[in-house]
Design goal:
single chain; alpha+beta; three-stranded mixed β-sheet; 3 strands
Amino acid sequence: MIYVPIGTAGHVDHGKTSLIKVLTGIDTDRLPEEKSRGMSIDIGFAFLDFPEEGIRVEFIDVPGHESFIKNTISYCGKTLPCLRKPNPSASL
């Protein structure tokens, strides 16, 4: 299986978590406080499998609010390499 990590990062209320939920059916906001506040506080994870192609796309959803920047930075080293513009001539 080929694993394709994709990190989402941006300002709060830009729909990062909602987009991932629509794509995967997985809500990356799992903490009760996240549910009550309506915003991500901690890193969230989701995935989308393409079994015929042998591909799993893994989503890393980081908080966008400045109060939780430490949580975002904790995964920056793993997320930033995934934010590069894809090379259309490269094959998986």
